[in-house]
Amino acid sequence: MDSFWDLFQPEELIRYGGIALILIIVLIENGVFFGFFLPGDSLLFTAGLLCFKDVLDVDLAELLAGISAASFIGYYIGYYFGYKTGQALYTRPDTLFFKKQYIYTAEDFYKKYGGIALIMGRFLPIVRTFAPILAGIVKIDHKIFFLYNILGAILWPAVVVTSGYYVGSLFPNALDYINYIVIAFVVITAIPIFNNVRAQAKKKKEETNG
Fold this sequence. Notes:
Elements: H1 10-29, H2 41-52, H3 60-85, H4 100-113, H5 117-120, H6 127-137, H7 142-170, H8 178-209
């Protein structure tokens, strides 16, 4: 990789580090609080596409199994971090890469959907990182967490990776447009987060004025 910005280009990451780097990023982005800025959905979609193109030296089943395992472990890291020390995030000062707003966004999502947020949150950036941490903070029952974790770890790559794989099979030139596809993925997945932040800002303004 030639620059820091290559960290946000899934194709460059995959070509540089292969399956090993994919799994490391997935593990970190799925539960380590500073990993929320790493590519998630776009990385998995691109991995599926490059898997079909034989750029990755693994078959689809191996790719899905590896990503499921990495995301499962990542969620447990987040859960135990939240269980032991997660409250400290609420008093942590904002930085360039960390804002307390990210926690509140995930918290609102978790309050709205309960344990199922651990599955649905897999498909939303930021929420994906902080949902297991919040589960640890509120000390959700371990057996329930295990169930939602394993279901989410299977469903997330099954949907996103296979989407990339079959786009590659249906559109032979898809790789030529991967940058546009990734941008579209980022925009689509960011819309729910943007709407949530806007709703929170509106609510806060109403409370202040009221």
